[in-house]
Amino acid sequence: MAALGRRIFLFLLTNAVLMVVMSIIMSFITSAFGIPPTYSTQIILFYGLLGFGGAFISLMMSKFMAKKSMKLKIIQPNTTDEMEKFLYQTVHKLSMKAGIKKMPEVAIYPSKEINAFATGPSKNNSLVAASIGLLEGMNRDEIEGVLAHEVAHITNGDMVTMTLLQGVINSCVMIFARVISDMVARRSGSDGGGSYALRHGLYIVLSSTLGILGSIVVASFSRFREYRADRGGAQLAGSAKMVAALSALQNLVSQPRLKQARIRTSRGQHALDTLKISGKQRGSFKQLFSTHPPLDDRIRRLKTGS
């Protein structure tokens, strides 16, 4: 509970700081356009709470939603299945080495994709899940490397920091889109229905555009945390196993059978893509929106220690 309390405090503190900064910025903008200061304060409070509130609720419900959307099978400590026992014991071993006091729940999900993910609101209230495809497509050393990567996500607090960042982005997008659309509508001189249509239409356009720009920021941090989790996984399971896991992923994702399996994944599984060890490989401009770095670059960094 202490760890959860610290994270809740971090949420509240970040939200408060954001609102103060936004209030200062908006006071200059609104004064230039003759908009009452109380208006900007109300907008900031409403959308700030809405943005962070949605992100906070998403974090608190992350384990529950993963279990429901992914059809997870939670592995019990007394399981007699050899592969389930290996998964449970490996996560337990890695968690103890990482200093996690309460072991994450361990689960398997029915998918042919070669992947795994970690989720949960805190280090001591988390979950690690591996796909059937991962268990069938990798040997035990490679699987241990994947699990070490996911445990590293938990110890790094990546679920919380990603949620905090998304909350900041959500709030900023909604606040700026609303204020700018209102200012343009006021300056246009439109009245009644015309003013409402202009304001509403512009808000939709701005929130979509700013949301796209915000997603670049979120994706950039997501790629950073993947590199960090790779390093953490190497410390927990050994560099050789971490490199072997990423190399196996690199080989497997190029197989036509897996590409077809990716197409058939459910909407609930796609919603958790940012949490998984491997994401879609993109090139050139699209790489800006990728939540995972290229696997060959991740392997190179591990081998060179960069």
Q: How would you sum up this structure, described in words?
A:
The structure is a single chain. This protein starts with a helix and ends with a helix. The protein has helices at residues 2-32, 37-60, 62-70, 82-98, 132-137, 140-156, 158-188, 192-237, 239-253, 256-263, 267-270, 295-304, and strands spanning 73-74, 105-109, 116-122, 125-131. It has one domain (1-306). It contains 12 helices and 4 strands; from the N terminus they run H-H-H-E-H-E-E-E-H-H-H-H-H-H-H-H. Helix 4 (82-98) crosses helix 6 (140-156) and helix 9 (239-253) runs antiparallel to helix 12 (295-304). The model is unreliable at 257-269 (pLDDT under 50). It has a 4-stranded mixed sheet with strand order 1-2-4-3, with helices on both faces. The longest helix is centred in the last third of the chain and has 46 residues, at 192-237. It is of the alpha+beta class and 306 residues long.
Uncertain parts: 257-269
As a percent range, the share of strand residues is 5-15%
Q: Output the radius of gyration.
A: 22 Å
The averaged pLDDT comes out at 81
